[in-house]
Design goal:
Layout lengths: L5 E12 L2 E12 L3 E5 L6 H8 L7 E6 L2 E2 L5 H6 L2 E3 L12 H12 L3 H6 L2 H4 L2 H10 L15 H13 L5 E5 L7 H14 L4 E5 L3 H7 L2 E6 L2 E6 L1 H5 L2 H8 L2
Parallel strand pairs: 3-8, 3-9, 6-7, 7-8
Antiparallel strand pairs: 1-2, 1-4, 4-5, 9-10
Bound molecules: adenosine-5'-diphosphate.
């Protein structure tokens, strides 16, 4: 992390779906080492922007840079190699694999060890130490050897977070990390994201303003595909246009 430099940047980012412009010339600068929240009403274009930034869809126009390197139009794998990793709102875990096994597979997958895996399952065990560190980091130490199917919802989300961390990203994009969670899990997730954010850049989408206010160094508010406001939580919360957009006046 080099504080003050830009980790992730978009210029004039635009996405059309069959003539419908979902993202309209968005400029975005995510400062290295900061936690950056992306908020806005449903349909604002947040998910589309996430998909653009991670290469899952290609922009109609505009550019994306990661640590100053132009990655516009690159495949998700190439963007991931530059240190950008994302979580999804819903990831499919394997019900009969344990958290430890999920992590071991993710770690060996990251190392491109797909073929080696078939040669020797012993190699997988080489990842056990790192797998257990990650499990501990997300608070699942007691559940490392339980089938994932038995985990509670919040615990599954924590495991998904660990799977993203296994990629050791410098920039982590989290899509609604607290969606569907009760109060306790929300607080646990806030604490977890704080820990994760040490030494890396985090961009997240969340509808829970308590989460946004607790975590975000910077907030970008989107509306109808455009950036409506950008600043600290206090700044955007006091912004007339934001209040109007949220209250629908
Ligand atoms: P948000 O995540 O802020 O709720 P989205 O990025 O999901 O917003 O959607 C922004 C707009 O783009 C919405 O009007 C949505 O219907 C539209 N949209 C998103 N994806 C597609 C798609 N693949 N094809 C057509 N329209 C889409």
């Amino acid at each position: 992390v080099r504080p003050g430099t830009v980790a992730l940047s978009a210029r004039g980012l635009t996405k059309d779906f069959r003539g419908f412009r979902a993202v309209k010339g968005v400029d975005l600068d995510v400062v290295d080492g900061q936690v950056h929240a992306l908020v806005g009403p449903n349909g604002a274009g947040k998910t589309t922007l996430f998909n653009l930034l991670t290469g899952f869809i290609r922009p109609t126009s505009g550019t994306i840079t990661v640590h100053g390197k132009d990655l516009t139009g690159k495949e998700p794998e190439e963007i991931a190699r530059e240190g950008v990793a994302r979580s999804f709102q819903i990831t499919s875990l394997f019900d009969n694999l344990t958290p430890r096994e999920h992590l071991e597979l993710a770690l060996q997958g990251r190392d491109g060890g797909g073929l080696r895996f078939w040669r020797s399952a012993n190699l997988l065990r080489g990842y056990r130490g790192r797998a257990d560190e990650l499990i501990e980091q997300v608070g699942l130490a007691d559940l490392a050897a339980r089938p994932a199917g038995e985990l509670a919802y919040g615990q599954k989300r924590a495991l998904e977070m660990a799977l993203v961390l296994a990629l050791d990203p410098t920039v982590m994009l989290l899509d609604e990390p607290t969606a569907g969670m009760g109060r306790e899990d929300v607080e646990r997730t806030i604490a977890l994201v704080r820990r994760i954010a040490q030494g890396r850049t985090v961009v997240f989408v969340d509808h829970n303003m308590h989460v946004v206010g607790s975590l975000a160094d910077h907030v970008t508010v989107m509306m109808s595909g455009e950036v409506l406001a950008s600043g600290t939580y206090e700044q955007v919360r006091a912004d007339r246009r934001v209040i109007t957009a949220y209250l629908g006046e």
